[in-house]
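BUG-359 | component: ligand-complex export | severity: low

The export step for succinic acid jobs runs without errors, but we want the raw record kept on the ticket for reference. Input record follows.
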Amino acid sequence: MKTKLFLKSLLVILLIIAITPATFSQDKKLPNIVILATGGTIAGEGSSATGSSYTAGKIGIESMIDAVPNIRKLANLTGEQTVNVGSQDISVAVWITLANRINELLAKDDVDGIVITHGTDTQEETAFFLNLVVKSEKPVVLVAAMRTSTALSADGPLNLYNGVAVAASAEAHGKGVVVVINDVILSAHAVKKMLTTPVHAFMSPEHGQLGTANFGLVEFFHEPHGVHTVNSDFSMDGIKELPRVDIVYGCADMSTDLIDIMIKAGAKGIIIAGVGDGNMNKGTLEAAKRATASGIPVVRATRVPVGAVLIHGEVVDQDYGTVSSDELNPQKARILLMLALQKDKDMSREKLQELFIKY
Ligand code: SIN
């Protein structure tokens, strides 16, 4: 009888343990930070410490945290593996999963900030998307690495350490989504991957860095540009997908049928990575005019790495029904157009232009 009672009580205790969600049981004085891991070079493994060949997205989140000395002194950490892919394979579906999970976590009183580990190739896109759909002032920080976890002088561990320090800092509140890499803090609006391989690949050439993170010492100097997070017009609440928007890359003597082909394939909006100030050859401009006349928005961005596209510059937007991307590069302009079309598929050219200036 006694044994039966004991076993019954044991079962009840085990059940309670099993259904209690993972909580931050450690130091009550430290902030609680959740790390959402998505893969990338920071989780990559190479065949040699000095070789350049490697596979992204091999290491799990727990091993990544364990590889960073003293990181648990900065915050109480829990890790979740969202996906484990090279960031070339990050999709709209992953963005939506991340946005929903982040909003769910940040709504909790016992979550103080989020760190997302990510590949560098599309990191600025994920940062910009989240900047427009996360509904919280709490810090959301993307970190990455240019060298794999097995490389000589791997940069991932220090970037993760600094990323957690930023997410744990009071100063990061209200700054929108930021990227922390190579000791600098960059806003989601302004961050660009400017170089293919060195550790200082990320810059904000138009606006400069928001601040620095140096072995966990966090300093902010500037406010981010553009509307973001709690003040954004966009939300992913209940949304499962975004309209297709394609990018046409401009060059001398470019094929003039690309816009028509993309629309035929299902594009609901077009971004031009134009030459110079968002320009295109005559045939492509005529195709853009046809597209906008039929209700498909066309946004002029530029293939030039730095600088804004002037509204009514060499191309008079009103004549073609087009919109300038202002400061957004083609890949970020695509995200804003997808979100805008999701909200209102018949948005006027004027309203769309306002959004590109605002965000
Ligand atoms: C990737 O973007 O996943 C690969 C490149 C990198 O993380 O640096």
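Assignee comment: Attached the raw record above. The chain has ten helices and 16 strands.
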